[in-house]
Specification:
By secondary structure, this protein is of the alpha+beta class. It has seven helices and 14 strands. A seven-stranded mixed beta sheet has the order 1-2-3-4-5-14-6, sandwiched between helices. It has a seven-stranded mixed beta sheet with strand order 8-9-10-11-12-7-13, with helices on both faces. The longest helix has 20 residues, at 96-115. Bound molecules: coenzyme A (COA).
């Protein structure tokens, strides 16, 4: 097979890459987290990921046709790259083992090329496949990624039936700059090493944060983002230890959903650790249902072997 690996370089290639990714995203056996699932959203998203935009979208081509994509998306705080992919169409007329080997070869070539784009300051890597994506699990294992605990993707259609618990003595309102230090402290204690450090919890376009206050002190917060497809993504909800079990988490999540509805979203989704019993119960009570389980694979860069997968 005549395989070329290089960044996507034209509008037409971007459309072809988005169509390939959308098709693979609809199949649980090749689905990964973070990426959109529809062509229109993907065409925008693939060109906008930080910091390289389209230059960070590596394609695998045969005869000018895109058959694989690996998208790079990294930050310096935390110094982590989120690999979106490899997403590869390795289908052929031959037997499944041969298709698996072809998939692994193409995926390995994409990964080798994409690694060269990363600065040395990016020291952590993450891949987030659907738990049914066995090829990506084998790939991650091969490259010495370590498996973290699974996260459930939950979603809910929005309507006017959002419950809103009565909370004596607690006020919920939009985040203000004066809340930053207290909310950052709660966030960093509850979500150490998350994709956003506490002081930046309100950062980003189309992002809203709400705070729960008792006697003017923040005791909890929630962050929600409006995504390209118009859906709300509930990013964080946290309540201080001594205020839990009173309905504050439920009220915050409900407030975030109401704000998404007001902004025109028709649905909200989120991810939650499968082991997080309290949060899962809260979302279930708010009417969220499970769509899929995603499993994070992580590794530190530069500490493991780095070679092409063996057939
Ligand atoms: C999840 C969290 C926000 C819930 O906040 P909260 O104010 O306690 O939430 P609520 O009081 O509205 O509801 C919590 C529900 O979980 C239940 N719950 C609390 N602890 C529980 C536990 N250990 N096991 C089972 N259920 C539990 C409560 O009983 C309540 O359900 P119920 O009203 O049906 O009885 C809070 O526990 C928290 O900040 N956790 C750490 C951060 C986190 O994990 N956030 C979610 C990330 S997606």
């Amino acid at each position: 097979m005549n395989l070329t690996i290089r960044p996507i370089s034209s509008r037409a290639e971007l459309s072809a890459a988005a169509a390939l990714v959308a098709r693979l995203q609809h199949d649980p056996a090749s689905h990964i987290g973070y990426l959109d699932v529809e062509v229109a959203g993907l065409e925008k998203q693939l060109g906008e990921l930080e910091p390289l935009g389209l230059d960070g979208v590596i394609g695998a081509f045969t005869d000018g046709r895109v058959i694989g994509v690996l998208v790079t998306d990294w930050d310096t705080d935390p110094p982590r790259v989120w690999w979106h992919g490899p997403l590869v169409d390795a289908a052929g007329d031959d037997d499944p083992d041969e298709a698996d080997r072809r998939w692994a070869r193409i995926a390995g070539s994409l990964y080798t090329a994409a690694q060269r784009l990363l600065p040395a300051t990016v020291t952590e890597e993450e891949i987030l496949p659907d738990e049914r994506n066995e090829r990506l699990a084998r790939f991650a294992h091969h490259y010495s990624f370590e498996l973290g605990s699974g996260a459930a993707v939950l979603s809910r259609k929005l309507d006017t039936t959002m419950p809103s618990p009565d909370l004596p003595g607690v006020v919920i309102r939009a985040f203000r700059d004066e809340d930053r230090a207290a909310v950052a402290a709660i966030h960093d204690q509850l979500f150490p090493g998350s994709h956003l450090p506490g002081p930046r919890v309100d950062e980003g376009r189309d992002r809203q944060v709400f705070v729960a206050l008792r006697d003017l002190d923040p005791v909890g917060y929630v962050a929600i983002e409006r995504q390209r497809d118009g859906q709300g993504y509930l990013d964080f909800v946290g309540v201080t230890d001594d205020e839990r079990g009173l309905g504050i988490g439920t009220a915050l999540a409900a407030e975030a959903c109401v704000s998404a509805w007001d902004a025109g979203s028709v649905g909200v989704h989120l991810t939650v650790r499968t082991s997080n019993v309290a949060a899962r119960r809260l979302y279930e009570r708010l009417g969220f249902t499970e769509e899929r389980i995603l499993v994070p694979w992580r590794r530190r860069r530069g500490t493991q072997r780095f070679a092409q997968p063996r057939p």
